[in-house]
Amino acid sequence: MEDDVLTTLKILIIGESGVGKSSLLLRFTEDTFDPEQSATIGVDFKVKTISVDGNKAKLAIWENHELDRAEGLKFARKHSMLFIEASAKTRDGVQCAFEELVEKIIQTPGLWQSENHGRAVQLTDEDAGGGTCGGYCSLV
């Protein structure tokens, strides 16, 4: 039921070309894995609703940006974001990764204040202020 959904969260999956961003997206949303998955041309997008700590959230998940591991970790630390690794092939940490992300978002009061509505993180090299990584989870 749509009325039970707390919010819709927009999530961007980033990583190096060929590392399995689309496979992660498909494993999480459809619980499928294709070892012969072809490279994504353009953008892939899926929607899934999950429940974390009694709160339902609709996830709008985009997979469209290539970034190597070192750049991703640096970007996450700079913007105080989670940096999470999981395996679509073995299913290790996939559900946990998305649940952890939603839980952290729900537990961050600043994200729910009305003056923050419409704010987004810029995906550029410009300095946007320092920060420390809010969390790191490596399962592979």
Automatic annotation (TrEMBL):
Q: Which biological process annotations from GO are given for this protein?
A: protein transport
Q: Which organism is it from?
A: Astatotilapia calliptera (Eastern happy)
The cross-references to PROSITE patterns, in alphabetical order and at most eight, read:
RAB, SIGMA54_INTERACT_1
UniProt keyword annotation of Nucleotide-binding present: yes
Any one Gene Ontology MF annotation carried by this entry is: GTPase activity
Q: Which UniProt keywords apply?
A: GTP-binding, Nucleotide-binding, Protein transport, Transport
According to UniProt, the name of this protein is RAB18, member RAS oncogene family
Its domain of life reads Eukaryota
Q: Give the InterPro entries listed for this entry.
A: P-loop_NTPase, Rab, Sigma_54_int_dom_ATP-bd_1, Small_GTPase
Q: Please indicate if the UniProt record lists Zinc as a keyword.
A: no
